[in-house]
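W.,

You were right to be curious about this one. When I first looked at the sequence I had no strong expectations either way, so I just let the prediction run and decided to look at it fresh. Below is the sequence, 320 residues in total, followed by the output.
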Amino acid sequence: MGVGLQADDPLYVSYRENFAGEPTGKDNPELLRMHPSLGHAGSIVNGVPRIGFQKGGKAAQWRDEDMAELFLNKAKKFLKDNKDKPFFLYYGLHQPHVPRVPNERFVGKSGMGPRGDVILEADWCVSEFLKEMDKLGLTENTLVILTSDNGPVLDDGYKDEAEELVGTHKPAGPYRGWKTEMYNGGTCIPFILRWPAVVKPGVSNTFVSQMDLLASLAALTGQTYSEKTDSQNTLSAFLGLSEKGRKEMVIEGMFDYAFRQGDWVMIPPYPGVGKVYQLYNIKKDPGQKENLADKEPRLLRQMMMRFEQLKRETGKITNY
């Protein structure tokens, strides 16, 4: 049962069609305080249109402005309740995902509109969480990982002036591309690991992947898992003890795939991406400005063949 949900007012949800008589962002823009730019024009909660449709559950509806601190407080309570025993906590930050609705105390603080304001709020949440670890004496011997699921995006479904107010800031830094794209800007993600008792502060350029956390943390904790996965044990790289990470990895965009081997990335031709193969050395050219496919035909061929082999072995890549 959802938080606050009443038995006499059940909640119904559909991602296919609206419920009769329920307003939507598409048909009732006069009810909105935030308007959709694409795709987010379904049911309205707190004046914000959503993906999909819902009916009922009025007592369980939420106020976006309060959600980040609500999740923070629940995470802090978990720490207090489990501070005297080993624990695992997955803390999924509410901000800065869309819809970007900051708490009132962060509104206007960034000068970059709602997107900048919710980034500030996310930063505050992480800081408050780490302060709680300090208070409870958990900092020294607790492994903390802060990471994301994709590269940056400005317009992510709502007209919140993210593009207009970004100014000279480059969300992907020196990298090319955005969320859903196969360039570095879409596939390279923030990854910060802290464990003061074991890990020395520093920056690593080692090639690793989030999916390797399963095998790596299983090795760290002496656990096993029976299901065949693509996860590899790169624990020493995660802990900064080695520069030996992955050798290769299939990279996924929104609907497309690329292939990385060492410092090289191959992007096959796809509709909307390009009609020719692209090959980049991301160590020498992190911005992926120079396509070396014509200059490195032998390497390109080798990577194409290895990519085809992986497709056959896994049977999972079908849209290439």
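Here's what jumped out at me. The two ends are 42 Å apart (CA to CA). And, maybe more interesting for your project: The mean pLDDT is 94.

Coffee later to discuss?

I.
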